[in-house]
Amino acid sequence: MNPTRRLQRLDSHLSHHLPLVERALFALAAILLGWYLFEHAMTAYEQAAANRELESVHLAVDKPASALPRPTGGALIGRVEIPRVGVSAMVREGDDAATLRHAVGHIPDTALPGEPGNAGLAGHRDTFFRGLKSVREGDRITMTTPGGVLEYIVRHTTVVDPDDVSVLSPRGRQTLTLVTCYPFYYIGSAPRRFIVQAELAPDRSQ
Q1: Of the candidates 176, 144, 173, which has an alpha carbon nearest to the alpha carbon of residue 50?
Q2: Report field, pTM of the whole predicted structure over 0.85
Q3: I need a labelling partner for 29 at 20 to 30 A (CA). Which of 44, 62, 106, 195 fits?
Q4: Which of 97, 94, 102 is nearest to 77 (CA)?
Q5: What CATH class is the domain 1-206?
Q6: 106 CB contacts (<8 Å, ≥6 apart)?
């Protein structure tokens, strides 16, 4: 078979199968889009439900964090807000994948917000903690908990390796430490961690 005839047959073969490939790719894109919209809707629902729960509990409770029962996995911790960079998210107990899918997670074995020590919060860089890329020293962080409203002031940011847990060690003052993956625009599993550390504002407490 001469080369021209071979190319004609190949072109005919590809033209015949191309619509099947297009339909398969379209179906895959539709499935992925549907999954994304479903996850987005579920996250919005979970955040709204947690916000209603916090408001009802916050009105009924007037106790310091140390007087409240220790939270179990998935329990509502509160709401973290950094108005200048557009961060506002509900916080639940735990740093597992299921918790972080729909909320910011309170890192187990760290202090609770309002307790002496260092309270650690973890969130995804492409969802709830996307705004941390613009955070700077002096920004105010508001943490609303069942026991009261706390305000923290950002003291510094840093980038560390994933196994550097020293950032969660207790400090001299009540500290809030936010943890997310870094670099922010990295494709795939980011290799480092971006850390924001804030101290309880001297003019605000429970």
Answers
A1: 144
A2: no
A3: 44
A4: 94
A5: mainly beta
A6: 71, 77, 91, 92, 93, 94, 95, 112, 119, 120, 121
Terminal alpha carbon distance of the chain: 86
CA distances from 85 to 130, 134, 140 (A): 9, 6, 10
Among the listed residues 17, 40, 106, 124, the single catalytic one is: 124
Q: Is 106 a catalytic residue?
A: no
CB–CB of 104/123 below 8 Å?
yes
Interval 101-130: pLDDT, tens: 999 999 999 999 989 999 999 999 999 999
Catalytic residue among 40, 58, 156, 181: 181
- Per the document, the length of the chain is 206
CB 165 within 8 A of CB 87: no
The tokens describing 24, both together, are 């398969």
Boundaries of every domain in the chain: 1-206
